[in-house]
Amino acid sequence: MQKKLLKLAHATRCAAVCASLCLAQVSTMAHASLVMKPTYHPDLDYSAPILEGNYTKDVTHPDDLLGFEIGQRVADPAQITQAINTWKGQSDRVKVLEYATSHEGRPLFAVFISSPENLAKLDDIKQDLDALSYPRKTNDAQAKAIIERLPAVAWMAYSIHGNETSGADAALAAIYHLAASTDSATSELLDDMVVVIDPVMNPDGRARFAKSLEQYRGAAPNVDDQSLLHRGDWPYGRTNHYLFDLNRDFFYLTQPETKGRVALINKWRPQLMIDGHEMGPQDTYLMGPPRQPLNFNIAPSVQKWAVTFSEDQGAAFDEKGWRYYTGEWFENWYPGYSNYAEYRGSMHILYEQSRMAEDGVKRPEGTIQTYKESVHHQYVSTLANLQSLDKYSDQMYQDYWQDRKLVVSSKSPYADKSYIVLANDNHSRTHLLAEKLLAQDIEIKRVDKAFSVDNATNHLGLEKDDIEVPAGSLVINARQPEARLLAAIMEFDSALKPEVLQAERKRVLKKGESIMYDTSAWNLTMMYGLEALTVQDELTKHLTAYTPPEKISNQIDANAIAWFVDGADDASVAFAARLMEQGVNVRVIDKAAQFNDVVLNRGSVAVTITDNLKNAQLTQVIKQTADDLNVEVLSTSSGYGKGELPDWGGEHFVLLRQPQIAIASQAGTRSNDVGTVWWSIDTNLGIRHSHLDSNALAMTDLRRYNTIILPQRWRMSDANLAALAQWVKQGGTLITHDNASAIVSKMKDFGAVKVVDDIFDDPKPFDIALQRRLLAQSEYEVSPGLNSSVLNASVTYPWDDKAEALKADVLKQRNEWQKLFMPAGAMAVGHVDQEHWLSFGVNEQLPVLYMDQAVLVAPQEAESVVSMGVYTENKDTEYESALGWYSLPNGKDLHVRMSGLIWPEAAQRIANSSYLTRESIGKGQLIMFSGQPNFRGAARGTNRLLLNAIVYGAGFGTRPNIVL
């Protein structure tokens, strides 16, 4: 194909394209303004402008608003906002809604574009869409009439990744074209359609990337795609303020951009949703439909229309002579992308344009692809898809109606199934889960009287009968209007097709790569660490509609001697942290307790009068803090613990130290992990902390901090590691994640925890430590002869009935093979030490999102707080040979996988390893996570472990000097 060159982005662009331009010409402009008018070279062939057609002069042309031709440069969020605010006052085809505000205060807009008549009746259109979506209230005749009068609805969204800029610039062109065109084709299109354009889905990330363009823009153009001009620098523009990938947040709903966007999408139920992205700079253009694996919960009719639309989009590119391809590398398995809308009946199309900065990039065939060409591709795709929707809208509405009827009928594939979230004392987390479901129009019931169920399946896939469902549990019946979305985010296990597994296995073996583009497990109850069941029945008895809890206004007993917040609730950690921030002395009870009628779980936060005699505002501070967090304050007039429960003056009331927190970040650190830690501290705790440059720790006064978090990273200098080690020995709490844990584990004369790769020459200490932990979990059988004076010659040892240990060379060979099959992201089960302070508020069985991460093993010197795998009794189980460095007990099954794709080889590598360890080093401590505990801000179960480490570590695990 003969590729046309587009006109260049600024005055000296032809210097990079034409060798004939002499160096003298470049040097004369070397120190000129970097914002120049385009200069044309006679030897180059320029394409037509992006905007073609007849336009009214009443609507300002975008070139006049921006100060440059659209597509010549990247429009920043402020310029996009200015254009939208200008056009909404100039065109009667435009209505603008600000649906969210970013963390940095930038507005996010939905620009509604249609005929003035349609815009005047948007409320009626929305009412019709609602009626078509709820077949319980609408019949076929009513649906037919609605479809005949309903305009098509399209949601066109761009640049959710801030450094993928061409989509937002194309959005500006599309808004202007639809608002200002005087051509009959455009007015006829808008008579039939409501177009909603979401022009810049991530303004904070785009602003960051636009700033980097200013920083790295030179006087001469740069077409080298390895240049920082094209790539940006850490933390890059892809993510939002807290470094979240917003295109993974569509049902987790952690970020304000997503919350506002999803709420509006769900109200308008678009027939079509497009999402404009960019990919590698040397690529061409990718469009839908996706390849396998496709999530089973996407309606077949939606997948059918994806093919039709792609054919029309391909034809539009053929007409221009532009290269493209469909669905070669992306799949729709994980439901947290923008294709989220497909689970509600929308047809979704992904655009992936090759990414480049304003100067364009040099291609292998020797041509230059300009940024303007990228914008033009996105613009043409937009119009092509809208034209397709105009043709097929009525048929698509018919398919939508038929599918909505199906999923609520007795023939529904979701009939006779319910999900149960069992009642628990972690009210904050349970209500947060309900909030996320309600935000997606999912119907929830609350159990008002306990009952029992049979055929219940738990997270491990084990079937149980006669399980009691206590009052306060949540029940979500699968047969409901949003059944497809509900199943996608709540089913415990999404089984992959055999042919997909075959393709995955081959890819792993041939290339060491996965065909899975993202995680293969994401169940919300597992991510939240809440015990749940699936029941093969539609539950109806003893249920009432769930309503969110009312705001708590605590009445504080000023005459009490101690006040408590129960430790099962996640908000208790924030309660402790915020009180310490305000100068209150706080204790935590490390075991269950009872004072008078106040019953408390272990980990409960206690504020005593004796610790705070000089604080005249104590009760006011307690009330305000608890009310802000919406948690109940309990109080007592007695410090006497009933029975063997702790008294308030004993060792179980541990005095905390205020955490002085730092996050070590910057280049070499995984920005997503930094961001989730940062966001968790700000959102869940709301206390002060500092960000440090992890590459300059040796030159930083670390004495100001008692808690440092080292998120996942790729490398670290010896000097910076030595500085951290010295700081820990002097009393610091170091918390490491994933590969940062692996790096620290290799330090000489520091910690005892190792990565599994490093123990094969002497695995016995780690196996013995494992056996001690496993035996400590079981009841010891007390024999009659235990107290006999006669020597018992029949003592058994943990390794007596085990298979013969594998030799080092075999272990190493197996480990290298097992590494090939580590999961891209799946749920594994962890066993949690219920006596450790790090596990406050965490169930004994904890779902852990496991990836290709550090596999940690702990000897006896270290505490394994969360170990991978749960054992159950099975007298028929016998192990003929060892599987790894560990000894397996006969008569027991070891469960590792909960959900998602974990190959047997990977399960053997993960089994019996440690997800979370803690060990004392000098006066300080090292807390190591095998993975990322706050994955995407949604892994609430493992995030509680992290919050405990941050807030309680300085008080529980270190031996600081007493200050006199």
UniProtKB/TrEMBL annotation:
Q: Does the keyword Flavoprotein apply?
A: no
Q: Which Gene3D superfamilies match?
A: 3.40.50.880, Zn peptidases (3.40.630.10)
The cofactor required is: Zn(2+)
User: What are the residue boundaries of the Peptidase M14 domain, all occurrences included?
Assistant: 70-386
Q: Which residues form the signal peptide?
A: 1-32
Keywords from UniProt, A to Z, are: Hydrolase, Metalloprotease, Protease, Signal, Zinc
Record has Hydrolase as a keyword? yes
Q: Which Pfam families match?
A: Peptidase_M14 (PF00246)
Origin superkingdom: Bacteria
The similarity comment for this entry is: Belongs to the peptidase M14 family.
Q: What name does this protein carry? A: M14 family metallopeptidase
Q: Which organism is it from?
A: Glaciecola siphonariae
